[in-house]
Amino acid sequence: MNHKPLLDYLNEYINLTVDEETILISKIILRNYLKDQYIVQQGDICKSVNFIISGCTKTFYMDLESQEHIVMFSIEDWWTSDLGSFITQTPADFNVQCIENTQLIQFTFDNLEELYTEIPKLERLFRKIVERAFVASQKRIIRNFSLTAKERYEIFKKAHPKIEQRVPQYMIASYLGITKEFLSKIKSQLIHNQ
Amino acid sequence: MNHKPLLDYLNEYINLTVDEETILISKIILRNYLKDQYIVQQGDICKSVNFIISGCTKTFYMDLESQEHIVMFSIEDWWTSDLGSFITQTPADFNVQCIENTQLIQFTFDNLEELYTEIPKLERLFRKIVERAFVASQKRIIRNFSLTAKERYEIFKKAHPKIEQRVPQYMIASYLGITKEFLSKIKSQLIHNQ
DNA sequence: AAATAATGTTAAACTAGATTAACATCTATT
DNA sequence: AATAGATGTTAATCTAGTTTAACATTATTT
Questions:
Q1: pLDDT single digits (tens) B17-52
Q2: Please, which positions of strand C sit below 7 A from a protein CB?
Q3: Contacts of B90 in chain A (CB under 8 A)
Q4: Inter-axis angle of helices A109-118 and A18-26, nearest 10
Q5: Number of domains in chain A
Q6: Residue A78 falls within a domain, yes or no?
Q7: CB contact at 8 A, A93 and A82
Q8: Which nucleotide is nearest to B151 (CA to C1')?
């Protein structure tokens, strides 16, 4: 069982004893998904937070006109879930779908609550993870308001070069909140106008 | 000292013993600000998270063209801070300014860390508060992408009728990510076209 | 290697929302 | 009650980004 990437990740934030690692490992599930499979579907109650060992997912909202709006991409060593649905155990607003074959470690709601009690350090860790996610989300709102699509695209490229390589352009356009045609225009502007 | 609104709020989520309430009260600061005063300024390190007893604040980002972009309003029984700056103790991206005379309870960084250790329940509570804030922030990103300004305005009015009454229109426009002129147009459309 | 599906590009016509600028109303101060 | 400052409205012009539609390229399957 390939828990090492998770334990490495956790040990950057907190120090787990061998006993604590054993408890942790007893309460997690290793799971493989194929490309295009859904980890969460809009309307379902999201049953897990997931740490990605390998692969790539997109989290998106499908609107009434059947348009996909991507909120985030997740790759190795990061988390994916519909956190809103997970914490409130109510139907999900978002879909989480694999865009590559993906291996991940799942923390179910009940197991995680137990883990918080048995290893209080984990509660602190998860608080910090959510804090960071919140901060990133707030900064994104600001970027969407105060920058043009071209500026947002350049920031995205710099911040997530690996994702830019791995993911089709039309999904990046969706993440940026623009059409694929307009992203195409931006790219050709960036090439020609310098 | 007027701690009751805070204790009432906390007791909706967790049950504090009398001893715990005493510890808590020893580590918080009651503070009054006048209209227009800043609780946090962009560039400062944010020293507190603040529970509002009375009054109203706006949290905003000032861009390079000196344009204000409001991320949130906060009123009684809610929190205000630059959480990103607070948790990382790095310079704030946002300003938090009072738009009415405001009384609030401050938790400083060090006091809050101590409180987490002395009253572990508080760590859980703050995790939940941040989780909710994160979820709200994610939903806002989606709304901004998938809805028109008119739709966003109608949702805002329904969700925060009290704030809509208390706050000038041009600030609501900034919160919605549109100009005051366009909000004015939307309002007259809503009156005339039905 | 051909055929199909998935992804990406280009260009013309269109629209939501911005900008500018002039004017209107409301509130606070003297 | 008169003035100044803050807030709100209207209308004309402009622009970033959308829509539509036709075509190009790249993967994938047979």
A1: 999 999 999 999 999 999 999 999 999 999 999 999
A2: 6-12, 16-21
A3: none
A4: 160
A5: 1
A6: yes
A7: yes
A8: C16
Sheet of strand B79-80: strand arrangement: B29-33, B102-108, B48-54, B79-80
Q: How far apart are CA B56 and CA A182, in angstroms?
A: 40
- Report yes or no on A155 lying in a domain: no
Token code pair at residue A54? 């390998």
Question: Which amino acid is residue B7, in one-letter code?
Answer: L
Residue B60 lies in a domain: yes
CATH number, domain with residue A63:
2.60.120.10
Within window 112-171 on B, which residues have Cβ closer than 7 Å to strand D? 168-170
Q: What is the DSSP letter of A67?
A: -
DSSP assignment string, chain B: ---HHHHHHHHTT----HHHHHHHHHT-EEEEE-TT-EEE-TTSBP-EEEEEEE-EEEEEEE-TTS-EEEEEEEETTSEES-HHHHHHTSB-S-EEEESS-EEEEEEEHHHHHHHHHH-HHHHHHHHHHHHHHHHHHHHHHHHHHHS-HHHHHHHHHHH-HHHHHHS-HHHHHHHHTS-HHHHHHHHHHHHH--
Residue B166 lies in a domain: no
Average pLDDT for runs of 10 along chain A of length 194: 88 92 96 96 96 97 91 96 93 96 97 94 89 90 92 96 95 97 96 70
Looking at the complex, report in whole angstroms how far the Cα of residue B116 sits from the nearest Cα belonging to chain A.
Answer: 9
CB contact under 8 A, B116 and A124: yes
* Phi-psi category of residue A56: left, alpha or beta, with phi > 0 → left and psi -120 to 50 → alpha: beta
The spacing between the Cα labelled CA in B48 and the C1' in C1, in angstroms, equals 69
The domain in which residue A55 lies consists of: 4-119
